[in-house]
Amino acid sequence: MWDEIPATIGKPVGLPLKDPKGFWVGTTLEPYGLIYQPTLLKRMGVEIKDWDDLLNPKLKVILPSARRTGRARVMRATKSSWPCTAGKRMDWLTKLAANTGIFTARSRDVPSVVAKGEFAVGVAVPSYMAFAEVLGGYDVMFVYPRTPT
What we know:
globular; about 15% strand; five-stranded mixed beta sheet; alpha/beta; 5 helices
């Protein structure tokens, strides 16, 4: 089975899936999505279903910092592989940057801040990071947006 696992995944810079010396292999690929507070969004008159919804000028988005968190670096690399022109991706990222209220030092901080109502929406992974808030009784939802074309 080892030989069937590719060494890396993703473009332009592949992420390692297995150790060249055979000590470890990646076992989970976890997509980024959007964690949001439905009550806050309803008050704002905003719906979140797609990545482009993050560009709504009524929102300020919370993102993990790509300089400080490994997951954010992965997210940035993933966005650079979206099936659209480089110019369209840069335009989208520029608009998102203008709509970003804060970059967190830790990916874990995104769902926590959204759960507390400081921001209505943030970019996160669905594992313990987002669902811990649901188990804690917070009014948060999670959606996997479509990849832009």
